Amino acid sequence: MRILHMIPDIGISNGVMSVILNYFKAMPKGVYFDVVYFQETQKDRKEDIENLGGRVFKISPPSVKSIFSSEIKDLFLNHKDEWTAVHIHAPHFAVFIAPYAKKCGIDKIVCHCHSTWYSLSPKNESRNKMLALPINKLCSLKLACGTEAGLFWYKHKNNFKVLNNAVDFEHFKFSEDKRNKFRKENNLTDSFVVCHIGRVSPPQKNHPFLLEVFSKIKEKKENAKLLLVGAEKNDELLKLCKSLKIENSVFFLGQRKDTDCILSASDLFVFPSFKEGLPVAAVEAQASSLPVLMSDTITDEVKITDNVYSMSLDESAEKWAEKAIDIANAQRKDSAVFFENSAWNIKNPAKSLYEYYKTGVFKPTPDFPKRILLVFGKMNRGGAETLAMNIFRNIDRQKIMFDFMVHTQNHCDYDDEIKALGGRIYRIEQYNVLNHFKYKKDWDTFLKKHSEYDIVHAHMTGSASVFLPIAKKYGCYVISHSHIAQSQRTFRQKIIDIYRLPLKRISDYMFACSENSGRWMFGKNVDNFENYKVIKNGIDSSQFVFSQDDRENLRKTLGIEDKFVVCNIARFHQQKNHTFLIDIFREIHLKNQNSVLLLAGDGELKYEIEKKVEKLGLKDCVKFLGVRSDIPQILSASDVFLMPSIYEGLPVSLVEAQANSIHIVASDTISQEIKITDLVDMCSLENDAKYWAETVLKYKNGYERVDRTKEISEHGYDIKQTSSFLENFYLNIQL
Q1: 669-679 confidence digits (pLDDT tens)
Q2: Spelled out in words, what is the top-level CATH class assigned to the domain 169-338?
Q3: Which DSSP helix (H) or strand (E) runs through 487?
Q4: SS3 533
């Protein structure tokens, strides 16, 4: 089987040519790649192609004139019946190649894009854009190096498949032997080695700025050396090196075939390009477990490992240098987990490409981890947010990775943990109706750039009907997830309620934390919808088992060893009804002077509640604990969990409390589904504070705290069950 690949040039520094050779080497025996090109380069890969059994043909540059010439026609006629497929790596040239291929009976015509621009030359941009118009009709298979490139050339996500710029992982993975040998041979033993791979021409690689960054690195690390692979000596760059006083520390290595050794020998890879499609060099660097610092103009799709960082080119060279040193100081992380079974390891996607050449059917290799975009207001310690983090901690992050879009510029409680787990955080302005068009534009811009997302999972409802249709436009599956069963009747909330009405029509799938929550959000008949499911607010119940040691230690720390302790864990929001909660506790304290109230959380009404506590003379027996990460310890230290919320979906905190075997007194506005165990007493908000206090005081004399994990699991509230379901759902999602 022979496949004809068409590419403008076969130069050694051409990344696309490297991709072709990578796939050629990974093909089964008996499959050969021939290559046709039209631009001469000083050094090319002709010998490499021929050594693998391929043939090389040179033609004149395709143009309008070539349509009427016989050169391309003769190429196909002279080799009629030799090629199974034609694989075109310059999409705008398909108009010249495809018609002749079809006339010769070749039905497998592949168009493969590798960039997010029509031309780096402004004068050619309009021409190439026009030439690209018939692509979708001319080619039987449209491939792209990444989703962003595919959307640029083919306009819609359903028009193409992604074939990653994969590499031979075994060849590029980090080797201590290669590192030591190269560093010894090149007098780099004690050096801090920065590496870059890229041609000086065209100037898209941004070498001048790279040199400025390196000069700042050099100021901080005197032993720093810069290896420029693929870059030939250039008078302009040499002059710049001299002016920056780094000429003795910068090495122009030119075209090399030992990049695997160079990468192993390096400590950092810096890539400040103006433009890229999906750079193979960055993939090779990650295969070698190198930390990578690149410009934010490069698609996030290239972030295969969790050791890749982006910076704006608007930032100073000094800032880039600081970041470079910071990430290089971290331990070199093994990349095997990200590569071995992924679509970035050439042996996997090569099978998909071979099957297409053979059968005409292309099934892309799943690219792990699959990134899911979760949308929240803020990632603080609320119930929905805690559920998402519980799932994130327990899901197989080699297969599924969570990224978050939040509607705040402020640092949130879970931000650091999200980043530590490998997730990304994006920020957008909060929707307020007045910014409707700007909000839509911001979402459109984001999804156009971050086209790696196939699934957008909305955990907020206020503006979901605005951004979910935009996500669908870009070919995403969209999920609406309800976490509440009613809302406060403010004017703002009434507006939000109007916006949630279209969600059952917009959403591909509808999730809810409880039956009540689902019916409230999506309508009374939602149970009959096939695309609806209740996702229980699962927890890791083993983390919440009652501990006598935790009880004694925290009570001692807080100075409440001999107290009757009531707790509430919730943000200070009108929904949580803290005003009434304080009224209840006042009645409790009047009847039992030994009582104490623990309030964990933060929010806009905290100051108001503090003032009320002070006014009622309860300051010495109400402790404001703030945002806490030791919730299991607080529960163990307490005797009753009090939650008089005006409304809830299905609060995670009450599941956690039952796992801790603490008695709960809660409002009957909360779904009856929360009664997992016999620990829950429900009271009407129509009852006065004295009635609630009497219910709480039933437990003042203590009770036995037993392990409830089995009950939690049997009712489906084990986080492993929830995580397993969602993992399979995300991996196999379909309409």
Answers
A1: 998 999 999 99
A2: alpha beta
A3: none
A4: strand
